[in-house]
Every structure is written in structure tokens, then in C-alpha cells.
Design brief:
mainly alpha, two-stranded antiparallel ribbon, 8 helices
Length: 145
């Protein structure tokens, strides 16, 4: 959220205040600001996590996908499309159990899968390109000379 709000503030000519108001990474997480609490709960949470098997992991994944549909704004069809696209992209790479390559089409660079950062930058870049194509004069006038 800091990046999104900071970008809007920078476009309005307030980049300095946007940088000053951004929280340090240690304070952005409630757990990171309380290391004693994290240390105290580490052992009990680890013993619970080690009890998880395939059924529990599958249930958590299905629950996460259901939350994604419920929390998505707009149409359910768009949310389902988003989820299926994410699942298909996550299937690219080597299988963790067998080591067999899935959906790599003989390209060695895809054997490690597609990185989250690469996909995120591509999606934001693609959206920015579409926005600039939609409003070409506004994009030209906002560029520094």
C-alpha cells in the first residue's frame, strides 16, 4: 500500500512526504515489533505445523481460493479467471516430489518456475502500457522534459 499511495503522492509532486511517511519494514508487521512474543509462540506453533499433512495443506489452499473469490471486487467470473490463471502459472516448473518438469516446453529457464517478482512487474508494466495507450496525450504531458 505504501507503493501505491506513495506513487500517487509523487505524481502530485509530494514525493518527499511520501518517503518520510512510509513505515520501516520492521514496524510494518505487528509480529516483527514484538520479538519476545514471536520467540514464545515459536515452539508451540512449530509443533502444530509439523502435524499438518497433505489433507490439511489441501484444505488451507482451498480455503485461500475461496477467500480470494469472496474478497474479489467485481464479478465472480473475473475472480475465478484470476485464480485459475494463478494456478496455471504456479504449475510451471519442476515437480517437488518427482523432479519431473511440468509445462516447461523444453525451455531450461522455466524449470525453476516463474518468479513472483517477474509476474508482478509484468502485470504492472502491462497495465501501465494499456493505460498510456488509452490516454496518450495525458502520458506525454506528464513526462519530464
Amino acid at each position: 500500500m505504501t507503493c501505491l499511495d506513495g506513487h500517487e503522492m509523487a505524481k502530485a509532486g509530494r514525493a518527499g512526504p511520501a518517503l518520510r511517511e512510509s513505515p520501516p519494514s520492521a514496524r510494518s508487521s505487528p509480529a516483527a515489533s514484538r520479538p519476545v512474543l514471536v520467540a514464545a509462540l515459536g515452539a508451540p506453533l512449530t509443533s502444530i505445523a509439523l502435524l499438518f499433512g497433505p489433507a490439511e495443506y489441501f484444505s488451507l489452499m482451498v480455503l485461500g481460493l475461496i477467500f480470494a473469490v469472496v474478497l474479489a471486487k467485481g464479478s465472480v467470473l473475473k475472480a475465478l479467471t484470476m485464480i485459475l490463471t494463478g494456478l496455471l502459472l504456479s504449475m510451471i516448473g519442476s515437480d517437488l516430489e518427482t523432479g519431473a518438469e511440468r509445462m516447461t516446453w523444453g525451455i531450461p529457464e522455466l524449470s525453476d518456475g516463474i518468479g513472483f517478482v517477474v509476474v508482478g512487474m509484468g502485470v504492472f508494466g502491462f497495465g501501465e502500457i494499456l493505460r498510456n495507450l488509452e490516454q496518450p496525450e495525458a502520458a506525454r504531458s506528464s513526462r519530464p522534459r
